[in-house]
Each structure stands twice: as structure tokens, then as C-alpha cells.
Amino acid sequence: MIHEIGRDDDPRLEPYRHVGDPDWLRARGLFVAEGRLVVARSIAQGAPVASVLVTPAAHAAFDPALLAACTVYVAPPSIVNGVTGFNFHRGCLALAQRLPPRALAEFASATRLVILEGVNNPDNVGGLFRSGAALGADAVLLGPGTGDPLYRKAVRTSMGAALWLPFAHVDPWPDALRRVRDMGFVIAALSPAGSVTLDAFTAGIPADARIALMAGAEGAGLSGAAIAAADAVLRIPVHPRSDSLNVVVAVSIALARLGARSG
């Protein structure tokens, strides 16, 4: 399954010419995993990897058993970078098939959800998945304007967490939040203008409460409709010299507080 590539016009590399085109990838049900660690985790976690493109140095760094079931293309850095159009992370890319979309009903037994509205920065999306995976979130619900967790940079920033922490798109918005509440969740929105502090909220809820934390984009924050649909609007007090926290930091603090409370 190992194929040495010596020409940049090799037709087997054609899909890799589109790794920077998310629309092309989505139309074909593909996503890109980038970097040795993320690709290794993708394979180990059973992601449906179609093929792997590596430089000789990256190939030598892999456990051969991990790549045994994969189609692997090995090419010099000059060919790899020329085909993809950029100098990608640590000489390793994989193309994998997207899994079918998840439905909200699949998370009926979850205890902790993260809901995102308008978070379209891939670094923030990836960071939220990484924190969610580390701090006890069972799934992420993607509201309108939220970026694709399987966008190449988001997958890389998540350190592969976007490949196994489940997510679902929720619509129509904000009516879908009513369905979340009907599943037994308390919807807690994070906002610098919140009327209740995070600590006061966590102190006042039962330890086994099922919480859906909702957060919005940098700057704009949550929409008025999302705020109105929440059961509580929480703020994390910050020093007077600062006005707010990065969304990844805010959600991470909230998940950690909730985890300490339930633990």
C-alpha cells in the first residue's frame, strides 16, 4: 500500500491539489487531517482515511503497523508542497471521508453540551473542541454561522478532538434551543453582560444537573434571540482592565467549574 511518487503531475495526487478548497472537499464528503500527530490519531480512532501523503521523513516517523491498512503516497517535500500549494504541517496530510451528520436526538443521554453560535474562526472552533474533549463535554451543537469543525485548521488546532467529540448542526435557530431544553438541559449562556456569575450559578444548581453551555463569536457575542432563549446568562468576572475573555478560555473555565461541581 506504499506508493513512491516521483512526479508532481502524478494523477494519484489529484485530490491533494484541492486540500485548500473546503467547498471542493465538502462536495466530495472529504476532510483533511494535517500533521503527524493528528493523522496518527485519525487512523487510530478509526476515521475512514482514504489516503495519506507524506514526505520520506514523516513516513519514517510513523509506526508501520499504523499505516498498514492505508494507501500511502510518499513524495519529496518539493513535490508535496508544489501539489498542495503550501508548506503543510510536519510533512503529513491525510484525506478522510466525513461521517454522516449526527442528529440532536442522539445526545438525549448526555450530561454536558456546548452550543456555539457564530463562532467561525477555525482556531477558536478547534480550541473549543480540544477543551470540550478535555473537560467533559459530551458533544458540541453548531448553531448558525459556526465554522466547520472538520476544516483543516480546526482539526489541527483541536489536536484531533474534532474527529471523535461528536457534533451536530442545530436548526431552525433559535427554536432548536427549545428542543435542547425539552431533552432536560438547562441552557446557560456565557456573556460579559450576564446577570449571574459563573460561581453563583454552579453553587446553586444540583450536582447532577444537565447543562448546555452556549457561547458566541468574539466581539459580537451571542445574538439577542439566543440570549432570550437561555435559562440563565452567566458572566465570568474579569479584572477591570479587561472587558472579556476569549471564547475558548471562557468555555474552558465554565466546563472546568461545572466538572468540579459535579465531581
Report the strand count. 12
Portion of residues within helices: 25-40%
In the CATH hierarchy, the third-tier topology of the largest domain is known as Alpha/beta knot
CATH class of the largest domain, anyone?
A: Alpha Beta
What portion of the residues fall into strands of 2 or more residues?
Answer: 15-25%
By DSSP (H or I, 4+ residues per run), the number of helices equals 10
Structural class: alpha/beta
Biggest sheet, spatial arrangement of strands: 8-7-6-11-9-12-10
Overview in brief:
The protein has 263 residues and is of the alpha/beta class. Helix content is 32%, strand content 20%. The chain starts with a strand and ends with a helix.
Overall description:
The chain is an alpha/beta fold and 263 residues long. It has two domains: 2-97, 60s Ribosomal Protein L30, Chain: A (2-Layer Sandwich), CATH 3.30.1330.30; 104-262, SPOUT methyltransferase, trefoil knot domain (Alpha/beta knot). The chain contains ten helices and twelve strands. It has helices spanning 22-27, 36-44, 56-61, 77-84, 122-134, 152-157, 176-182, 198-204, 224-229, 247-262, and strands at 2-4, 30-34, 49-54, 72-74, 92-97, 112-117, 139-142, 167-169, 186-190, 196-197, 211-216, 232-235. The chain has a seven-stranded parallel sheet. Strands 1-4-3-5-2 form a five-stranded mixed sheet. Strand 3 (49-54), helix 3 (56-61) and strand 4 form a beta-alpha-beta unit. Helix 5 (122-134) runs parallel beside helix 10 (247-262) and helix 8 packs parallel to helix 10 (247-262).
